Amino acid sequence: MSDRKTGMRGVLVIDNSALGMGKGGTRMSPTLTVREVARLARTMTWKWAAVDLFHGGAKAGILGDPTSPDKEGILRAFARALANEVPREYVFGLDMGLTEQDAAIFIDELGDRGAAVGLPRQLGGLPYDQLGVTGYGVAEATDAAAATLGLDIAGSRVVIQGFGAVGQAAAARLTQLGAIVVGISTVAGTVADPNGIDVGRLASLRAQSGDDCVLEYGNALPADAALAVDTDILVPAAREDVIDDTVALSTTAKLIVEGANLPTTPTAREVLHKRGIAIVPDFIANAGGIVAAAHSMDARYSPFTVDPADIFGMISTKLRANAVAVLEAADRDGLTPHEAAHQLARDRVRVAMRLRGQVPCTSNVEGVRAS
Questions:
Q1: Catalytic sites, residue numbers
Q2: Is the pTM for the entire model greater than 0.90?
């Protein structure tokens, strides 16, 4: 979609709605592509199915600079362009480049409180990033996966690539669980210390200096050095496709937990599998955010706020169980963890599609996938 007056260019991808209406974040980036949004929408399909919650996969994106002074006008034009789809088929959420204030703009433009989640607390929203729900879930999945592999999280060395909302919350929770965080990076650089990083100090510096916190911490290395730090567990929590064949061949990690969406390339996953390095896939590990989103979706028109305690309990229960189930299924059936996770999610989507009459009940697996 586009708007000539504001220059807005955006896209909405609804990947599959067999389990429910489309739900996924909305991002804004100067390099946004339709393929990028489509890949993320498909990931959302598997993510909702994996946690067994009743929404479908979708994602929206705006091509543009999120720091532009014209941002509000672009957001309003985007909302107007989707007035037929929102909130009946899709609900705006927060992703890269958007803030709680932007979610408030969406509901104001459409005159519907149910048009977006991720609203400011003062409008009944749930502060995902402040609570650290996604990073908390990543840490819980890491702990459960490590135990399944015979690794004791207490004393295990962890590297976290990315120190945004997800990486920071994951680092804090992993430290509480007894892990030693030996490497953390932002786009500005990497902090590495084999004796352990002071995560609390780095978080305080981030509040003051943003990504430059690693420079303020001292002895910073280049940003990509994080992926080469000697570690037991690697948590990529930044962008897509950062773990390629080179990293897969050289990493010392015994376990990789995908905090970001799509951080490993397909060929890298094959390399890691051949090396016996376990992976907890993104839509299993970072699903804490959508558990929170599900609570927010349910409360969109309610006068009552969501209790964070309910969210954290559900995140821990679901993500721990799924991480263990995927690794055990992969080992039992001779699959990669991604294959096992996709099989779990596909089975749930396939059943929903059959019940709705969207595919013949006699379809084989490949036929249903192609549909």
A1: 59
A2: no
